[in-house]
Amino acid sequence: MNAVEVKPKRSVKKILLAVVAVLVVLVVAAAAVIFGIWHNEIGTVASIKMLRERNDDHQDGAVYSMNVQGGFYLDDFVAQGGVSNDTELIQFITDHITHGVVDLNMTAPTIGCSSFTATAENGDALFGRNYDFSKTNTMLVFTEASEGRHATISTTDLQFLGIDVDQDLSGLMNEVICLAAPYTPLDGINDAGVSCGIYMTYQGGDKTVATAQDTDKPDFTSTTLLRLILDYADNVEEAVEIASSYDLHDSADTSYHYMVADASGKSAILEWTNDAATDATDNDGSQRTLKVIYNDQDSAIGEREGASNFQVVTNFVLQPGYYEGVAAEEKKGADRYDHLYEALQATDGVVADEQAAMDILRSVGRRTWDSDDKNNCTVHSVVYNLTQKTALWVSNENYDDPTAVFSFSPAQ
């Protein structure tokens, strides 16, 4: 009788063990599939950390860092010929990086900025940049070197990715959204000592018109062009070659120009304008062509520029005659441009070190500068040492607060 009772119990136990075994196999298989698809993305999200907390009283957003694992599909992006608008960029990122799980909402708000190149007393080539906007969260993005590509460090405004400016980065979905950050750099440096920044130009008179070239070249948007330069350029000439190889489509119905520099001390400003137009009539973005202003060949844009080896850029176009017949105040950032040029000209573009260059950026910080637009904060200031391949980075004009000052290297 007992034997008869035991057999069913053993059978049930065997069935339960078999079910558990099958479930374990399924869970392990599912985990393996998820890890196989998402392993780089999982590692990247896991690397996100807060470097500095927000301070609403000073209009400071929080600062984060993220170490990107893998190539974030940039080679695939290049192979497909890029994209011609933000909608296509969002689709690419959704399909490849978030694998269709998370939808993105990318924007590019109106920004102001200042940049310059200089030489340290020890001969190091420097590139300084202020990013002017309003309170927002930022992220320092580190990418890895791979065959044919450089390790980089860049800064992204998380508002571009739809992250709330008045809240800390929280929740897995927002962290997954940050996987798109490599495609929205504002400035950066690579391990070859090439640095690049992007700056609004407000082209087209009363209504800003985006550059939208329309030839048979591949298409790239504003920040993705900067990403290509950081990842693939060994020097300024290669950066110019990259910019010349694509049709530029500026994001968010606005217009931009760039400055790029390398460890040799060479730099260039890249602008897209209509040859026959002034700012008031430059209303067809498809007719703009690339103009390159090199630091050793920029006499055409001004006497003082021609007499110096450093360069300065803010938010107006430098092409001669572009503002003919246009009110002086239409040259956005002309006051900051003059201030920076005079500060550098006093020493022929030579500064003591990175901190001295940072002090020049501080002098045009927007919390104290008489702004000519609605941007009232300098969100970050950075001095890239192109010789040493390092970055001195300060959050939200907190120049005297050691907890807001960071030093980085693309290869760290």
UniProtKB/TrEMBL annotation:
Keywords: Membrane, Transmembrane, Transmembrane helix. One of its GO terms (molecular function) is transferase activity. The chain crosses the membrane at residues 15-38. SUPFAM superfamilies: N-terminal nucleophile aminohydrolases (Ntn hydrolases). The keyword Membrane applies. Coiled coil: none annotated. Residues 121-279 form the Peptidase C45 hydrolase domain. Gene3D superfamilies: Penicillin V Acylase, Chain A (3.60.60.10). InterPro entries: Ntn_hydrolases_N (IPR029055), Peptidase_C45_hydrolase (IPR005079), Peptidase_C59 (IPR052193). PANTHER family: CHOLOYLGLYCINE HYDROLASE, HYDROLASE. This is Acyl-coenzyme A:6-aminopenicillanic acid acyl-transferase.
